[in-house]
Amino acid sequence: MPFTTMHPVIQILIAALVVIAGVYDILYRRIPNWLVLPCWVGGFVVNAFLASSWIEGLKTAGLGFGLAMLIYMPLYLLRGMGAGDMKLMAALGAFAGPVAWLFIFLFSGIVGGVVALIMMVVHRRFGKTLRNMFLILWDMLHFRAPYGRAELDVSNPKSLRLPYGAVVALGCLAFLGVRPLMG
């Protein structure tokens, strides 16, 4: 099912998922398993039920889920994001399918960049953030995990962190809002 014809039930489920995850992430700085893990299964079931054939629905959900895991698992393993963020994006992939998930990923990236710039200015961390970005790139070019530096590890309480679930929620809702205009 192409993203331009995303079923309204899937849109509603995605919107509900990201709103709950975003609010929970802001309040508790985590995205709970009780929310995202059932959505992994739910994405497959809903797609199998709503697609023209159940095999096509499972394929759509599997490709979306797999693409999300392919991109986010390395970021989690490098301690660039939390497990809840990875599981949220995988659940969105299972619901949205690969094409729509790529747009959710892009919209979330744009929103995340804007929010990160605002946080850097508000917390007066612009120079330190640019330095950290250089260190991450340097370590990656030398095939070293950047989390070896304490300030680059998302589990470090001193690091400046975005509530990524909220960022994903805003990006996803923006995508759902402009999706009808995309063709």
Report on the structure:
The structure is a single chain. Helix content is 73%, strand content 0%. The chain has helices spanning 8-28, 33-50, 54-77, 83-122, 126-141, 164-178. The two termini are 14 Å apart. The model has no long low-confidence stretch (mean pLDDT 88).
Topology of helices and strands:
Elements: H1 8-28, H2 33-50, H3 54-77, H4 83-122, H5 126-141, H6 164-178
Helix pairs in contact: 1-2, 1-4, 1-6, 2-3, 2-4, 3-4, 4-6
Give the gist of this structure:
This protein is mainly alpha-helical and 183 residues long.
Distance between the termini: 14 Å
Task: Specify the helix fraction band.
Answer: over 70%
CATH class value of the domain at 7-109 and 163-182:
Mainly Alpha
Using DSSP, what is the number of strands? 0
Q: What general form does the structure show?
A: globular
Beta-strand share of residues = under 5%
Question: What does the main sheet amount to?
Answer: none
What Rg is obtained from the alpha carbons, in whole angstroms? 17 Å
Low confidence ranges: none
Identify the notable features of this structure and list them briefly.
183 residues; Four Helix Bundle (Hemerythrin (Met), subunit A); 6 helices; globular
